[in-house]
Amino acid sequence: MTLAEKLENLPSSPGCYLYRDFRNKVIYVGKAKNLRNRVRQYFHSDRASEFKTGDLIARIADVELIVTDNEIEALALECNLIKRFKPVFNVLLKDDKQYPHIKLTSERASRATIARKILKDGSKYYGPFLPISLAWQTLELINKNFQLRTCTMEIDGKADRPCLEYHIKRCLGPCVKQLCSLEQYEEAVRDVDLLLQGKTDDLKDELKERMKLASDELRYETAARYRDQLKTIEKLGQQQKMMIISRDDIDIFGYYREGPQVAMSLFTMREGKVVGKREFYWEDMPDEFDPSAFIGQALKQYYASGDYAPGEVYVPVEFEDRELLEEFLADQRKRRVHITVPLRGVKRDLIDLVEKNARLNFDQRFRVQRPDMQRVLEELRDILELGELPDRIESFDISNIQGAENVASMVVCEHGVMKKSDYRKFKVKSVEGRADDFASMYEVVGRRYSRLLREGKPLPNLVLIDGGKGQLQAAARALHEIGLEALPTAAIAKREELLFLKGREEPIRIDHHSPVLHLIQMVRDETHRFAVAYHRQRRAMRDFTSELTSIPGVGDKLRARLLRNFGSLKKVSEASFAELKPFVGERQARRIVDHFAKLRS
Fold it and tell me: Which domains, from first to last, does the chain contain?
């Protein structure tokens, strides 16, 4: 059926329409309450000059229809189709993160972990947490102060000895019955449950009673642990600082645009407190920019995942389908949702604040050549879902030629600046005469952090590996075996520039314009340069040694003396009899000069 015939036989039902070009590629997805009226409008002569429509119509070769029972179903389907096909004429919201939750597992001796999806597995879920780093900070405080286990082993109390986590007071040790009974451990789990439910007053009262009882019974170490837990509760309560009158959950959107470039900011408010913000960027918006269409499409895609629906949404402009989106969100929330366009008062002031941040983000992304490193590190923290800023990054790379002279390098980046005084070189000992980057990475990472543990020196905030999944797994195995499985570790692959994160199955793709990717690439490239330089040095030493020791009478001591005074094989080979004589004597100087003269002839 031709396009003209399809346009004559359009149904009047609600649903979605997909426009395809001459290569059968989807270039636009839309939804309509009445497909017949909406689709036919595109081909009326007075529509051809509207926003994007003229160029769009010129490229349409076919239309595909999907009928739904109602308009809300069409809205959800439209968002899923846009995510799937990424049509060039739709506004594409490229940040596809889901809200993280903290999960208390249903297994024996429960663990607290980060969860992206809520499953019907008997576990308890708390959240969502915004920004992402807040979830990791909360988990860090829980594990540090309530000492829930982080291992995945089956707990039966029959283990012979606890792991390192127990000795550094990060786990109660339920694996060893003599250290912690299951009843004592479940008490800590109940405390975490109360904390995450927000029942902090009940928990505080209970902890104060336990602290007093422990103190009266002279169990001062236990009393101190309860005291630290009380401080943790107060610290969590201070995570959110900005307050407004409303106690409902609110999302506030604002944007700033110049030419084809747009920055949009979102402030998230939970229980009346601003708890986080997110940024979104576009670089190729059309000249005929329509704020209403832009906001409408952005919001529909943002909420299509169904992770969470706030009670209120503030937007800077009115848009089509606002009431329909309210119904869609209300169905998710099981309560009424209001999307409003404030014109004055406190709500309008909040939108102005978000738009001010959007402009700052715009300048940071598109104008400033040297971005604020604090902001870059904060963004890297959120992308990698770290519990703290990656102020110190230690990066590793392996270098060899077909297994010869296996070496490794480690460089350090502190506060976004390379710290050359902390660079380290490694001669790989476990791999001789063969190229095995995985085994080499396992060795050097294990050596580095075993030494830091022995010497009691601080650990980095992030370990970066130059390589792919294999190198990352080797490094993770080394860290696990020395009790540092919680140390954040990532790897960056050279060709695709994908970031692999330990414990995450799918790789992370960072926008190629992002200062975060530029920082990671800078650290990776410096690691590679340092490794290659050390490898060349080792090869030069090998060549120097083999060539000189082939001369009769030249042994290790004489070779070391020549290296110390001349620096390289080339300079020794070019040295005259008079230059060599003071260091090796008259007879040996004559042998060396004759040896290299024969080689040249």
Answer: 3-85 (3.40.1440.10), 101-237 (no CATH), 250-368 (3.30.420.10), 379-536 (3.30.420.340), 550-600 (1.10.150.20)
Report d(CA 186, CA 163) in Å as an integer.
Answer: 20
Look at 75-89, 282-296, 456-470, 553-567 and tell me which has the smallest mean pLDDT.
553-567
412 vs 414: CA distance, rounded Å: 6
Q: How far is CA 269 from the centre of its chain?
A: 23
Res. 301 pLDDT band, cuts 50 70 90: confident
494: closest CA among 523, 530, 465, 467? 467
Q: Cα–Cα distances in Å, from 584 out to 491, 574, 581?
A: 49, 15, 5
pLDDT tens, 450-502?
A: 999 999 999 999 999 998 889 999 999 999 999 898 899 999 987 678 899 98
Residue 369 above 60 pLDDT? no
Give yes or no for a contact between 104 and 196, defined as CB atoms under 8 angstroms apart. yes
- The residues, ordered by sequence, that sit 6+ positions from 470 with a Cβ below 8 Å of its Cβ are 437, 438
DSSP single-letter state for residue 388: S
pTM: 0.44
Distance from C-alpha of 336 to C-alpha of 479, rounded to nearest angstrom: 49
What are the residues whose beta carbons fall under 8 Å from the beta carbon of 345, sequence distance 6 or more? none
Q: What contacts 276, CB < 8 A, 6 or more positions away? A: 130, 131, 134, 267, 268
∠ at Cα 463 (458, 465), nearest 5°? Answer: 150
Backbone torsions φ then ψ of 364, nearest 5 degrees: -65, -40
* pLDDT of res. 544: 47
How many beta carbons lie within 10 A of that of residue 4, not counting itself?
8
Backbone angles phi, psi at 432, to 5 degrees: -120, 125
Identify the three-state secondary structure at position 397: strand
Cβ contacts of 42 within 8 Å, gap of 6 or more: 53, 56, 57, 60
